[in-house]
Amino acid sequence: MSGTALRCFVAVLLPEELRARLAAVCADLRETRGLSWVRADNLHLTLRFLGEVEPPVLEDVREAVRDAAAAVPPFTVSLGGLGGFPPGRAPRVLWAGVLAGREEMTALHRALEMALAARGIPEEEGRPFHPHVTLGRSRDPRGAGGLLSTLGAGPVFGEAAVTALHLMRSELHPRGARYSIVAEAPLNKPSGSS
To answer: Which of 179, 159, 162 has the alpha carbon at shortest distance from 109?
Structure first.
């Protein structure tokens, strides 16, 4: 690996079938909401955005991901409903929520934060963890007021088995971000076993 920092995040990846259902909802909303949409192959549940990670720190992050994954048994999430960040009259982000599996996602997030902190990577501050899948972002810094009519209970998109954590690389390109897997750690598997 070169000496260049990687833009990274830790995520739970979703199966293709569930990503397709989420993308279909985005397609239905695409014309009227003024959002920049996340490509179907990029839809995921983010546990932690890390930003630029220097090569000497990358192995610490990999170990933290392995330790966090080992601390939580596999579980199932159910996705449904639509929400916005920030809450209020002009949200800038449209997301699909986690209906079932929220407690487990929160436990996984907590385990990740503790494993990162044990390696000198400070906890993310300023906002509580809210498990979700980002579907789109407003191009207008004032938010997307037209988005409000879409928010609420909405459809149930489906379920996904959560069996691994992924350390992801994000490369920015003119046509959107491209994600690639840097490391994968199965849930509830001790880091010393194969």
So the answer is: 162
- Alpha helices (runs of H) in 10-123, residue ranges in sequence order: 16-29, 55-70, 102-117
Secondary structure of residue 86 in the 3-state scheme: coil
Q: What is the pLDDT along the chain (194 residues), one digit of tens a residue?
A: 457 888 999 999 999 999 999 998 877 777 655 678 888 999 999 999 998 999 889 999 999 999 999 999 999 999 998 888 877 667 778 889 999 999 999 999 999 999 999 999 988 777 789 999 998 887 766 556 566 666 776 788 999 999 999 999 999 877 778 899 999 999 986 555 54
pTM above 0.90, yes or no: no
Taking the C-alpha atoms of residue 9 and residue 50, their distance in angstroms, rounded to an integer, is: 5
Please give the CATH topology (third level) of the domain spanning 7-186: Cyclic Phosphodiesterase; Chain: A, (3.90.1140)
Tell me the catalytic residues: 44, 132
DSSP state of 190: -
